[in-house]
Amino acid sequence: VFSLIIFSSLLTDGYQNKMESPQLHCILNSNNVACSFAVGASFLAFLSCLAFLVLDTQETHIADTRFKTAFQLLDLILAVLWAVVWFMGFSFLANQWQHSPPKEFLLGSSSAQAAIAFTFFSILVWILQAYLAFQDLRNDAPVPYKRSPDEGGMVLTTLPSPSATSPMNMPTTGPNSLSYASSALSPCLTSPKAPRLAMMPDN
């Protein structure tokens, strides 16, 4: 909104002719660079605000966290950049208006003062925008990943204790009962049996 006010003020009444000449001059000390700078900067600032307004409406649909972080970082950088630009613009426009001869132009003084005032207000707005962008970037910063000491190790699971009705606690009678009970055990609980040594007679 402030960019539109600066743009429209200088574009409509920012160029006036002197009484002795029909040629148009910038009302800011007859310096066309000052008016061109203010008009161009306000127009670019308005376009950047429109672009970020469109991106803000699509932020909820962005699933990639890296793109969202890059978007917030770009928002912060542009806000700081525009704050610096408008600070320089305010100093430049105020200096040119101070050195302008009084009553050199019949019209346009109110437009020049409005443009200078809203240039100063733009500095405050962009500083606030930079602060909000920094807060969003800090709040949404990814948590650094720390590898735990146990990560990557073998995960051991314990089996539940056998119940009274499990095959391991059933009476082991018969030649096949031992093999049946041992087959119910998990392979991780059974250990290989060592070979049995037998004493052989000398003959």
UniProtKB/TrEMBL annotation:
Keywords: Membrane, Transmembrane, Transmembrane helix. Its main location: membrane. It is found in: Membrane. InterPro entries: Marvel (IPR008253), Synaptogyrin (IPR016579). It is a multi-pass membrane protein. Residues 1-138 form the MARVEL domain. GO terms for cellular component: neuromuscular junction; synaptic vesicle membrane. Coiled coil: none annotated. The chain crosses the membrane at residues 37-55, 76-94, 114-134. Belongs to the synaptogyrin family. PANTHER family: SYNAPTOGYRIN, SYNAPTOGYRIN-4. This is MARVEL domain-containing protein. It comes from Colobus angolensis palliatus.
